Amino acid sequence: MTLSDDAARTYELDRRHVFHSWSAQAHLTPTVLTAAEGCYVWDGEGNRLLDFSSMMVNTNIGHQHPKVVAAIQAQAAKMCTVAPHFANDARSEAARLISERTPGELDTIFFTNGGADAVEHAVRMARLHTGRYKVLTRYRSYHGGTETAVNLTGDPRRWPNDHGNAGVVHFFGPFLYRSEFHAQDEAQETERALTHLARTIEMEGPATIAAIVLESVPGTAGIMVPTPEYMRGVRELCDRYGIVFIADEVMSGFGRTGKWFAIQHFDVVPDLLTFAKGVNSGYVPLGGVAIGPAIAATFAERPYPGGLTYSGHPLAAAAAVATITAMHEEGIVDNALDIGTRVLGPGLRELAARHPSVGEVRGVGVFWAVELVRDRATREPLAPYGGTSPAMTELVAACRAGGMLPFVNFNRLHVVPPCVISEAEAKEGLAILDQALSVADAHTVDAR
């Protein structure tokens, strides 16, 4: 099948004029997408693909949810834009709905355009609140593409942007499958990772550290779910030394893990919480920072030196109101937890038992990673850290041929469908993965 005339024109103009992120432009052959609905998208050749990527792990409510589309249309008919220094009903209601779902007293909401600038502002708030500059964050993390956020990031996307002057110190977080601490079980991994973090704080000087930034569950870096004991240990270290604890919920928030926010799995309340993506499923760009009372009080009489033209843009805020309302009324957060518990988790573990290319599966809700290896005994990854491989390229092609839009990073395939996915759709995806993983198996030592 070939591209339709309209799709061919779209592709031609894209390659002539569009500059894509994170890419060498000369080597791109982007897929043209022409339509979407629910958990499916259609490409320029007319193929229907099950979206097991949620685009960029952000369409939590699925594509073209009619209530959200209608809310955007209604808001556009009433007021398309408003400056941030005015009060606006859509922004006010979005802030109320978000604050009702954040843990603890994170009741003040600062709106941004997306996740990266939410992290930028959270770090700025922490630095101004504490009068300190250094920020600690873990290796194997991603916090955004802007200057501070990309330097906070603990994966190879940071390297070309890192000049060692951002005030960021990285540490190793818990990841038992590839433990840096020679741990034998989760309890050891937790204890040793916390000891490592405590020593890092001591060696850097507690009085120099403004914040620790952690993805509550790391996303693109591998969906390594920490133990509650680890997250409580981080909270205790922050309390001990007066360090601001920033929970990055840009990817893990708004139902992705089967809770409104992933940190609610751990019974921990951060000082600041960043969000974006699932807050309105990316229908209109929106992010923000949920601010606790101590930091909010810092800026009660002292002006906060930051802002943006589109803070709480009414179209984005209206989309957030409709998204959160629909998620509540339709039980979408509970659905994510149920599908993960009953279907995706057991199904992925069954695939791991059959496919020698699967080293580990891990996750929660509709937030799972399949760790692909060449050798289960040595855990040699199927692609190098920071790169790809022919095996991964073939795996992606097999997923696409089977009717799936996958999400891959390095040697991992992430299973991250919309939170609205049905049991039948989840099983459809698992069946496609079952076939595609046979391609990966051909690259393992067992195939020789």
Task: Describe the model.
Helix content is 39%, strand content 17%. With 448 residues, it is an alpha/beta fold. A 7-stranded mixed sheet has the order 4-10-9-8-7-5-6, with helices on both faces. Strands 11, 12, 13, 15 and 16 form a 5-stranded antiparallel sheet that branches. Strands 1-2-3-14 form a 4-stranded mixed sheet. It is globular and about 65 Å long. The two termini are 35 Å apart. 50% of the residues are buried.
The total beta strand count reads 16
Gyration radius from CA atoms, angstroms:
22 Å
Number of helical regions: 13
Q: Give the overall shape.
A: globular
Our measurement of the CA-to-CA distance between the termini, rounded to an integer number of angstroms, reads 35 Å
Biggest sheet layout: 7 strands, mixed
The strand order across the widest sheet is 4-10-9-8-7-5-6
Task: Give me a quick take on this structure.
The protein contains 13 helices and 16 strands. The chain has 448 residues and is of the alpha/beta class.
Explain the layout of strands and helices.
Blueprint lengths: L4 H13 L15 E5 L2 E4 L4 E4 L2 H4 L8 H13 L10 H13 L6 E5 L2 H16 L3 E5 L8 H6 L15 E4 L14 H19 L4 E7 L12 H14 L2 E5 L23 E4 L11 E5 L1 H6 L15 H16 L2 H23 L3 E7 L2 E9 L4 E2 L8 H13 L1 E2 L1 E3 L2 E4 L7 H19 L7
Parallel strand pairs: 3-14, 5-6, 5-7, 7-8, 8-9
Antiparallel strand pairs: 1-2, 2-3, 4-10, 9-10, 11-12, 12-13, 12-16, 15-16
Helix pairs in contact: 3-10, 4-10, 7-8, 11-13, 12-13
Brief descriptors of the model:
seven-stranded mixed β-sheet, single chain, five-stranded antiparallel β-sheet, globular, 448 residues, 13 helices, alpha/beta
